[in-house]
Amino acid sequence: MFEQNHPSHRPEPSDGDPPQRGFFRALFARLRNNFIAGLVVIAPIGLTIWLIWTVTGWIDGVVLPLVPNKFKPEQYIGIDIRGLGVIFFLLFTLLVGWMAKGMIGRFFIHWGERIVDQMPVIRSVYNGLKQIAETVFAQSETSFDKACLVEYPRKGIWAVAFISTATKGEVNRRIPRDEQMISVFLPTTPNPTSGFLLFVPQADVIELDMSVEEAAKLVISAGLVAPDEDRVVDAPKMLRRAAQRARADA
């Protein structure tokens, strides 16, 4: 019965608190957006410079110990020039390529490969590395021709792929179809270096107007970076064109 109702001692928020909180919240959001925008600009530049600097130093560390001291400028000027090993490597590679195209160079290459073919383990390693090098450093005429659309993994779902070549050899002969087949590479996202090799009828392939580089950006970015719409034909028009072609073939 002695209880009394005392007023609460909690301080009431003043009229100025909400505007202050809103001000600091807006300031923090603006600073965060500016920081992210700066990171988007700085990160690619910084990583590119760091990668070039690191690779250059690694090549220098491998190549320069093989170069005689009389050819090193640091013996004369006393300054270690970073990237000098890269220059020596490029000159050496050009010299080897020039010799490999000549008759004497081809003779020594075939002679060395015959020796390697007699070594079981080394032969497998050498042939595998040679095939990888020939694939990676192939000439431009063996690169992907165009970007395209194929229905994958089922009808009604379309995926971006790259046209490689017209299907040839035993694969083309064994496929039970009379029409021309095309070899296409279907890349994965976000790593376009892995994917699937598909043999698709030419009538089922929709060629895109975008370049191979633009299609690769589209795949790597998971569709976030799309090519300029003014340079690309409208996709629905291409789909309707493909449907009309399919009905005509039927």
TrEMBL record:
The chain crosses the membrane at residues 35-59, 79-100. Keywords: Membrane, Transmembrane, Transmembrane helix. It comes from the Bacteria. It holds the Pfam family DUF502. The keyword Transmembrane applies. The keyword ATP-binding does not apply. This is Putative membrane protein. It comes from Rhodovulum adriaticum.
